[in-house]
Amino acid sequence: MEAVVAQDLSVTYPGGTRALDKVSFAVDEGSITAYLGPNGAGKTTTINVLTTALPPTEGEAWVCGHSVRTEKDAIRRLIGVATQDVIVDPLLSPLGNLRFFAAIFGVPRRERRALIAELLERFDLLPKAQATVMTLSGGQQKRLQLAIALLRRPRVLFLDEPTQGLDPVGKEVLFGYLRQLRDSGVTIFYSSNEMEHLEKVCDRVLFLFRGRLIAEGPMEEFVRRFGGGDIVVLEHEGDLSAEALGTLGRVGKVQSTEPLTLAVEDARAALPAVIGVLTRHGVDVRGVDIRRPSLNDAFLSLVQEGHDGGR
Known about the structure:
- It is a single chain.
- The strands form 3 sheets. The protein has a 6-stranded mixed beta sheet, sandwiched between helices.
- The protein is built from 11 helices and 14 strands.
- By secondary structure, it is of the alpha/beta class.
- The chain folds into 2 domains: about 1-220, Rossmann fold (3-Layer(aba) Sandwich), CATH 3.40.50.300; about 230-290, Alpha-Beta Plaits (2-Layer Sandwich), CATH 3.30.70.
- The mean pLDDT is about 90.
- The chain starts with a strand and ends with a helix.
- The radius of gyration is 23 Å and the shape is globular.
- The chain has helices at about 45-50, 70-75, 95-105, 110-120, 140-150, 170-185, 195-200, 220-225, 240-250, 265-280, 295-310; strands at about 1-10, 20-30, 30-35, 60-65, 65, 80, 155-160, 185-190, 205-210, 210-220, 230-235, 255, 260-265, 285-290.
């Protein structure tokens, strides 16, 4: 069953900026979907539409079967949202914030105490439960926002860069909890550029570029298809000329120049040609590392393709 569906979703801001251009996708219930794209691609705009904070200019979207145009209240009762901006009352304590939002969200009184205690413990906020929010660290405030987003026990959880401000331990705690939520049937729509963590936790990828959905697929298939066969990383001395990079581009896809990184079909077959090109252009190769592609490699390749296609 599909928890989130977008059909030809478009948003044009005053002044004519086209933030989304006929975006269509479907998100399965009980899955974690990575919503990727470079800054300014339209990811936050999409989340604003799906959470009913922004009406679409054209097209339609449904969350748990409810229209973002005509059934906003129904959607808001079924979702949780945590954005990159921490939105809590700085004068209240974490406990006070959770009590306040539990009342606002209509959490039944008989369930509030146990739920709030569970969330305070889950996000390691018990030691600071009575402290004012303004005295908390940025990471603690971020964890509080995540706890608030889960007060409704949402069917769909929308996350927009939720790990900003979290330390590595906090991130691991969050991702472990997200897996538990998915296993319990919660759908998670996750917008971020933290590739390493997303690759471990997400089931599917949607990739947005300049307001258009240009790639999607299950995580392993997505990485294999868009990340390239092998990744070759070379340590070198000497300047890389435009001519050298152009020639390398005929051997593989140049993903980065610092360090020099190429995506090739078969590293062992391509390496002699790569080293030969660099040597002819006065570049000394000091070291070579060959690895399998990652989600980050797929991201870089798609961004490069997007830029090349826009020329």
